[in-house]
Amino acid sequence: MKLITSIREMQDVADELRRQGKRIGVVPTMGYLHAGHLSLIHRAKEHTDTVITTLFVNPIQFGPHEDFDRYPRDLERDKRLAAEAGSEYMFVPERNEMYGAEHYSYVVIEKLTDVLEGKVRPGHFRGVATVVIKLFNITKPHIAVFGQKDAQQALVIQRMVRELNLDLELIIAPIVREPDGLAMSSRNVYLNPEERKQSVVLSQSLQLAQKLILNGERNSAIIIAAMKGLISLQPLAGIDYISVADTSTLQELSQLKAGGSVLISLAARFGSTRLIDNIIMIVQEH
Amino acid sequence: MKLITSIREMQDVADELRRQGKRIGVVPTMGYLHAGHLSLIHRAKEHTDTVITTLFVNPIQFGPHEDFDRYPRDLERDKRLAAEAGSEYMFVPERNEMYGAEHYSYVVIEKLTDVLEGKVRPGHFRGVATVVIKLFNITKPHIAVFGQKDAQQALVIQRMVRELNLDLELIIAPIVREPDGLAMSSRNVYLNPEERKQSVVLSQSLQLAQKLILNGERNSAIIIAAMKGLISLQPLAGIDYISVADTSTLQELSQLKAGGSVLISLAARFGSTRLIDNIIMIVQEH
Q1: Min Cα separation A139/chain B (Å)
Q2: Residues of A numbered 100-129 whose beta carbons fall under 8 angstroms of chain B's beta carbons: which are they?
Q3: For residue B71, what pLDDT band results from cuts at 50, 70 and 90?
Q4: β-pairing verdict for A143-147 and A169-173
Q5: Which among A37, A42, A65, A286 is annotated as catalytic?
Q6: Residues B144 and B215 in one domain
Q7: Which of A121, A205, B89, B267 is deepest in the core (most CB within 10 A)?
Q8: Would you say the C-alpha torsion A155, A161, A167, A168 has a positive or negative sign?
Q9: pTM, two decimal places
Q10: Which residues from chain B sit within 8 angstroms of residue A160, using beta carbons?
Q11: Is residue B286 part of a domain?
């Protein structure tokens, strides 16, 4: 696997790959790779000839009191894992290569970013959309693969791709979970053993919601109350939000309708660690 | 010249041209072409194998009380003129093809758009940057040519291209003027004969500023006062602003320094018609 740190060199490599008729897949990451990321690389590999994994802890998507400085990093391990998963290139720019001293240009996605993570983390999705369009312009992919774990991010990028006419295909890959159900995340390493043990309640609460809906519950308030009840049994868990929303608009649904696609998502804190998780369901006739 | 109205078809044509190793030049316009636009097409032609002229009166760059509805249109004439100038393709999308019923994605360029035209026309440059990135993603150019007449627009796009890593080269072509000095503009057709006659004062005021600077004047207030004095001799002219600013930051300069690059720009109304003009100078030692 070849490591590239220069934007110009990465663009030249992408041009040359395209000139040779190769299809390019890109997997944007912030590094500290886990099995979730590797599943994205595998997915990209299935659909393209050459996979570029990007690794950049993007400062402009972190709030002033968030974990940018302590975000976990392990480049040597990431290189090995990405190469083993089949990535041919890893693009690892320095901060100065990506943002000059004065950066004025941003991509903003309205409406979709006023809710959920966007509400709790103002400016987060502006940072995400901006770095993603930059990474697309640098790696020139035919296909880009993102994980469903960051469901709102996936929807925001989908919207950006469509509305700004980026000529590439997006693939949203399913969440990869630990054996006990915890969604894989680079931030899971922050958890102490007791927090780690209690954090399993997040995926359990989503399973509970799923069961309630399969059993015919259509009232979101009841579903959310049941999830809250379950999570609050774990004393270390602090709920940021629990949401039952329409998958495409991210507007809250008070009542579920048959045939509708619903995103059930949550964010919770364990100590200073903030975790998110979600499921997407198509509501069946009951 | 081939007319294309579909985004997908335009992208496919661009892909095929690139596959053949052809270099693509794009000239984005709002139509009603004049000699200024044609000079841009000629310039694109000099540097590329295939020129795509885009023609789209972009609704999102017009304010609610601006001239979107009455903006002059003459597609048959535009087709003929662009073809004669050497354009191989004209991309002419309908509004619905460019913007769906709910459009949430925008490119914003901070700081540079708070002044001059951006101050008088809030949201204008957000509309410009957004449509230009869309047109770039649709036509996939190696080179894009813009006119210096819209100097702030050129700087905003330059910034966007650099900061969002768009892999293309920008060319800013000089202003083309009528024999009496009036900068060519599609909006000049709005002027009645008396307004047209008086409008020549705009370019004359810029020439006056240039002479003052060449003669050693370094105080912007004096330069602006002299320009105002000259323009106010024409009773139909209403000044929106006169600015002496640094070319790269667009911040006002109170004092000119040798070696500095200065943008002298203005906007004025003649009846309901709003015209802009500018010159760029490198200040010499005196």
Answers
A1: 10
A2: 100, 102-112, 129
A3: very high
A4: parallel
A5: A37
A6: no
A7: A205
A8: negative
A9: 0.97
A10: 105
A11: no
Judge: A103–B163 Cβ closer than 8 Å, yes or no. Answer: yes
Contact residues, chain B, for A104 at CB < 8 Å:
109-112, 159, 163
Res A286 pLDDT > 90: no
CB A241 within 8 A of CB A120: yes
Same domain, B59 and B196: no
First to last CA, chain A: 51
**Among chain A residues, CA nearest to B160:** A105
Enclosing domain of residue A245? 186-280
Give A233 to chain B, closest Cα distance, Å: 40
Nearest Cβ partner for B167 among A11, A159, A167: A11
> What confidence category does residue B190 fall into, taking pLDDT thresholds of 50, 70 and 90?
very high
- pLDDT reported for residue B202: 98
Tokens (6 digits) for B254: 């109170």
Q: Are strands B273-282 and A105-109 parallel, antiparallel or unpaired?
A: unpaired
Q: B159 and B133, same structural domain?
A: yes
Q: Give the number of domains in chain B.
A: 2
Same domain, A193 and A264: yes
Residue A276 sits at the chain B interface (C-beta within 8 Å): no
* B144 lies in some domain: yes
Question: Across chain A, what does the average pLDDT equal?
Answer: 97
> Shortest Cα distance from A257 to chain B (angstroms)?
23
- Look at residue A179 and tell me if it is in a domain: no
Does B73 reside within a domain? yes
A28 and A161 within one domain: yes
